[in-house]
Amino acid sequence: MKNTEPSKALGSVWIFGDYRNYFQNRVTLQLIAKGKDLAERLETEVTVLVLGDRIHQYAMEYVAHGADVVLAVDHPHLKAYQVETYTRIIAEIAAEYRPEILLGGATSFGRELFPRLAVRLETGLSSDCIALEIDPETGLLLQTSPAFGGDLLAEVITPDHRPQMATVHPGVFKERPHDSGAVGRIVYPDVEIRPDTRVELLRSRPQQGRKGGLEEASVVFAGGRGMGHAEAFAILYELAELIGGEVGATRPAVRAGWAEEERLLGQTGKSIKPKLLISAGASGALQYTAGIQNAEIIVAVNRDPNAPIFKMADLGLVGDARSIMALLLEELRKRL
Amino acid sequence: MAADRRSLVSAHHNYLVNNMLSPGFVLGNPDSPRGFYFLADVVLPGESTPRISGRFFDASAALLVELHWNRMIENPGSCLYQPEPGGFRIASGSGDVLLTVHTERFPNGYLTRIQGRLYDDLGRLRVEPSCEGVQVYGNVLLSLAEPFQFSKK
């Protein structure tokens, strides 16, 4: 009989388990994969911290995707996410177990929780990182994050405070395959659970929208300011509907009201990895390209032959994006 | 912060015991010829049915039933094996439910909840219901990492 008693030690690379909208939002699994790389360099393990009510399946899923340890706080009072309760509990646990690194998704959830946690833990936070590495000399986490409106990429370190905290966009890293044969350790910390007395959740309901959405689409039409006006931008919606794709947008297009905020791509929006991305009328500012850099094939359309988007495109078309998209729509309608 | 609780967790199948996930656990000695034991064995990928074995007694230390991999092999207590959707239950001859075993299927795995009140061969309470699963007492290994190897069966 083999009885493998769990080790007393926890890995020092921690990932916050964000399982809301789980089967669309894979950022925790992507961070586990990156965490494994970081942990290997630090000769430690990856721990996923997960809070909620009846979180068994998520603990199992995290182990299947590479977590060595799951730190689980499972209680009915944690069924609804309440930022103050979550912040207090995670801060107490982090103070007890002292992780070196704490990573989370740059989702609406992570963007609300992580700054509060950083303040509570008196440490730094790099938001919306697009790369994470370990400095081979110091062992510090190198956090690459857009700065000054995205014109610069800053490499940030947290030399004196712990944990080193960062949030990362969904889609920046690739998850590991599911391994049903994996076995990990699970730790249930003894932490006081009490409900948040200032906020009472009356009800919640899922947002209406297309299942999967931008992050799961294999074809995305992404429009920028060069689409000119709302009616022209609407061509992208028609194209997407015609071939079963999705529509993304740059910040100027969202600001102009041509697309909803949830379609925003880039540093402050979504990171996507479709098989085909058609970028229409977007010059290729860093704020935008950070969200599309993992697309397998990029076709760029822009009237400026020197636009930065052409440096990363697999195929470039120099011309008016409105006209070319309209021609594409006309041609596809004939063929489909 | 007081001491934490620790176990193993399988990516494929777990039981809930002492409010923890565990790939498998065992109380008592499954190789003893007549004594109490309870084995919730490890379920490997490719299988979905939990494997429960044990020798169960009543509070007066009288043997009721012996299970081996979900099958009754001794039944002096005239117990009944009743299949149910997602599992089974064992009821005593008088109709009292001794044990229920129910497996929930997740998108990528399985969780088995056991409920029951079981006594050992000295009439001591060893298993009782607790929240979603069971609370177990006495000599127990909570973290089996691979299927139990019986020495005599």
Written account of the structure:
The complex is a heterodimer of chains A (336) and B (153). Helix content of chain A is 30%, strand content 23%. In chain A, α2 (56-64) links the parallel β2 and β3 (69-74). The longest helix of chain A has 16 residues, at 27-42. Chain A has helices spanning 27-42, 56-64, 83-97, 108-121, 213-216, 230-243, 251-255, 286-289, 309-312, 321-335, and strands at residues 13-16, 46-52, 69-74, 101-105, 125-129, 131-134, 141-147, 152-156, 164-168, 183-188, 219-223, 246-249, 276-280, 297-302, 315-318. With 153 residues, chain B is mostly beta strands. Chain B has one domain (13-141). Helices cover 0% and strands 54% of the residues of chain B. In chain B, the strands form 3 sheets. In chain B, strands 3-2-12-11-10-9 form a 6-stranded mixed sheet, with no helix packed on it. In chain B, strands 8-7-6-5-4-16 form a 6-stranded antiparallel sheet, with no helix packed on it. The termini of chain B are far apart. The chains are: A alpha/beta (336), B mainly beta (153). Chains A and B meet through α2, β3, α3 and β10 of A and β1 of B.
